[in-house]
């Protein structure tokens, strides 16, 4: 059971964090150097449009009024209008987020389902050859820059062997369909294979190492010795008893990983030209499309905050001893 | 024995000797860990390369090399003239790679040191004074955990321009969060210990207690986290440079990889793609293993793992 006071405290922290992030964005995009209006209204818009937007976002008002208006706009989901195509930012970036989920959800599922089994195997053979080399390889997959492994994958599978597409989400010239069309399209998944594998490979080191280290502690517990004495088969002890009792930190970190995946998608999607949230942010930076950059940053930050919250609540629900530990990265 | 040591009292000399012995013991333990020793060699080797780059690099990193036949050597695979081949501007890749080590190490050491300084100070203050100060500082840390690193670096480069300094400043601004938490929780328990109470009773100032009495006990964990941060900083710099928004004033391994990508050379120029990526990976793994090596000295239980 999750205690109500804990839930309330965590909710409070979430609100404070969101408030702080929006305030930081206000400072960065409205107050710091340069003409703040140029950050909100594109010089390319017509004079009429510019005036209307100036009034809508209160740009001719004093700063504290602007700040209140800014907060109110965020609260109702009005994140401004894109400089590149004049559309509202939020629906646009939410649509791109669906593309990001096509990559990150399968990748994180693969990493956090396979990872614990590999980690359990390492822990069982700790300090053996498998464990030593395996741990080193796991650390290496984490340390290898994801854009570099992505480039090598492209070089091998797209340019040399010619068996997988070299980026993007669909062949050039195809019109993007609705979100549902995109998710249920074979072509999409064909394009998604490489980025998913590369992202999963990068993410898998944490669940492996966390399971390994927790399980080494669990393996020293009395109940494992008891199971051994009872003559329970080794694989049953390893997976049913020891691994299951080591999963709590993995579940916690898994939830955090989903939150951090949105920010991490910038590099992944740039390498694979994948039209997701990360690539959209990068494009917007190139085009000096301030409202989209700001909106994408906010959404990525929001995901981190949300999944930090979910991670803590799930952990404390699975194990009531977890309390007041705050977020552990 | 130098002049300073002669002036010390007998007691102080004994303390100094103990510290020396402990440091030597720690050094031996560190080097007896094979992975940590290899990691140290990699980091020192890279440092050597970075310092003596002008003497080691066969060509100027930015020079467009012309072959004996008077032609530009564009995208040539490795040969005896160019051990790592050439790039699309007929520049020598080996020379660029040697110079590129400078950015990685600069970023690693500067961010690492700044994080150690800021994180330790915040952690000490928070854990020592407790109460409202602690509450406020820890909420700031909580908020920092909500800020994703690469997007922040993107925003900073958009608003303030891309340079290696902006990259370092932006990274340090968020990376001290873990250090602050770790130092705080240790300080909380240390400040209840008798030696701190004794120092307080004998009238030591808060600053002295924090930095002279408590901090030295935290040195191992500060180093463990600090060295780990150095590895992460290298990865972040490489990432933002790959996006074309990082270091603009110097050639870095991340910038090299960005050029292979944007010039379209990744279709075949393996000699250009492999070296920078391999060296980033090796250096980051080296920092991680050094961090682990320090952890194993301070927590011998880990060695049996």
TrEMBL record, chain A:
It is found in: Cell membrane. PROSITE patterns: ABC_TM1. Gene3D superfamilies: MetI-like. Its main location: membrane. The chain crosses the membrane at residues 12-32, 101-124, 136-163, 183-202, 250-272, 292-311. Residues 97-311 form the ABC transmembrane type-1 domain. It comes from the Archaea. It is a multi-pass membrane protein. GO terms for biological process: transmembrane transport. Keywords: Cell membrane, Membrane, Transmembrane, Transmembrane helix, Transport. Pfam families: BPD_transp_1, BPD_transp_1_N. Coiled coil: none annotated. One of its GO terms (cellular component) is plasma membrane. PANTHER family: DIPEPTIDE TRANSPORT SYSTEM PERMEASE PROTEIN DPPB-RELATED. Belongs to the binding-protein-dependent transport system permease family. This is ABC transporter permease. It comes from Natrarchaeobius chitinivorans.
Automatic annotation (TrEMBL), chain B:
InterPro entries: BP-dependent_transpt_permease, MetI-like, MetI-like_sf, OppC_N. The chain crosses the membrane at residues 35-57, 105-129, 149-176, 218-243, 269-290. It is a multi-pass membrane protein. It is found in: Cell membrane. One of its GO terms (cellular component) is plasma membrane. Pfam families: BPD_transp_1, OppC_N. Residues 101-291 form the ABC transmembrane type-1 domain. Belongs to the binding-protein-dependent transport system permease family. This is ABC transporter permease. It comes from Natrarchaeobius chitinivorans. The lineage of its organism: Archaea, Methanobacteriati, Methanobacteriota, Stenosarchaea group, Halobacteria.
């Amino acid at each position: 059971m999750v205690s109500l006071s804990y839930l309330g405290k965590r909710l409070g922290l979430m609100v404070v964090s969101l408030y702080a992030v929006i305030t930081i964005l206000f400072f960065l995009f409205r107050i710091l150097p340069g003409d703040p209006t140029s950050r909100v209204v594109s010089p390319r818009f017509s004079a009429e449009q510019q005036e209307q937007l100036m009034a809508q976002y209160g740009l001719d008002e004093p700063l504290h009024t602007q700040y209140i208006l800014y907060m109110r706009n965020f609260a109702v989901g009005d994140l401004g209008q894109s400089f590149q195509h004049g559309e509202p930012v939020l629906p646009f970036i939410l649509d791109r987020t669906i593309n990001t989920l096509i990559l990150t959800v399968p990748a994180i599922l693969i990493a956090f389902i396979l990872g614990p089994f590999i980690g359990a195997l390492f822990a069982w053979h700790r300090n053996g050859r498998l464990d030593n080399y395996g741990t080193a390889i796991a650390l290496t997959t984490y340390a290898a820059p994801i854009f570099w492994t992505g480039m090598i994958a492209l070089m091998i599978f797209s340019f040399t062997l010619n068996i997988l597409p070299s980026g993007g989400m669909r062949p050039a010239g195809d019109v993007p369909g609705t979100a549902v069309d995109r998710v249920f399209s074979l072509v999409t998944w064909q394009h998604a294979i490489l980025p998913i594998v590369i992202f999963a490979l990068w993410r898998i080191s944490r669940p492996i190492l966390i399971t390994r280290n927790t399980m080494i502690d669990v393996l020293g517990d009395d109940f494992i010795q008891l199971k051994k004495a009872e003559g329970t088969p080794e694989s049953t002890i390893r997976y049913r008893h020891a691994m299951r009792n080591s999963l709590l930190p993995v579940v916690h970190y898994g939830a955090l990983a989903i939150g951090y995946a949105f920010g991490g998608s910038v590099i992944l999607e740039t390498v694979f030209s994948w039209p997701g949230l990360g690539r959209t942010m990068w494009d917007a930076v190139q085009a000096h499309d301030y409202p989209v950059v700001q909106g994408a940053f906010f959404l990525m930050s929001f995901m981190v905050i949300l999944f930090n919250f979910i991670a803590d609540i799930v952990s404390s629900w699975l194990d009531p001893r977890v309390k007041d530990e705050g977020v552990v990265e | 024995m130098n002049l300073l040591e002669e002036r010390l009292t007998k007691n102080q000399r004994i303390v100094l000797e103990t510290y020396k012995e402990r440091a030597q013991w720690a050094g031996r333990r560190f080097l007896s860990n094979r992975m940590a020793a290899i990691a140290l060699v990699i980091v020192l080797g890279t440092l050597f390369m970075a310092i003596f780059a002008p003497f080691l690099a066969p060509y100027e990193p930015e020079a467009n090399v012309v072959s004996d036949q008077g032609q530009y050597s564009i995208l040539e695979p490795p040969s005896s003239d160019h051990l790592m081949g050439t790039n699309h501007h007929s520049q020598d890749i080996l020379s660029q790679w040697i110079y590129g080590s400078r950015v990685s190490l600069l970023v690693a050491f500067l961010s690492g040191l700044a994080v150690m300084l800021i994180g330790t100070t915040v952690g000490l203050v928070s854990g020592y004074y407790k109460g409202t100060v602690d509450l406020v500082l820890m909420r700031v840390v909580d908020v920092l955990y909500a800020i994703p690193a690469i997007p922040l670096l993107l925003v900073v480069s958009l608003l303030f321009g891309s340079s290696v300094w902006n990259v370092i400043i932006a990274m340090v601004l968020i990376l001290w969060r873990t250090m602050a938490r770790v130092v705080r929780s240790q300080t909380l328990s240390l400040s209840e210990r008798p030696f701190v109470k004794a120092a307080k009773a004998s009238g030591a100032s808060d600053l002295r207690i924090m930095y002279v009495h408590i901090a030295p006990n935290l040195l191992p964990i500060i180093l463990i986290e600090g060295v780990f941060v150095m590895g992460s900083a290298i990865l972040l710099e490489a990432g933002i440079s790959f996006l074309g928004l990082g270091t603009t004033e110097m050639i870095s391994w991340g910038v090299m990889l960005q050029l292979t990508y944007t010039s379209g050379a990744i279709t075949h120029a393996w000699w250009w793609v492999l070296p920078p990526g391999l060296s980033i990976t090796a250096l980051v793994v080296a920092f991680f293993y050094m961090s682990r090596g320090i952890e194993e000295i301070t927590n011998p239980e880990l060695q049996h793992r």
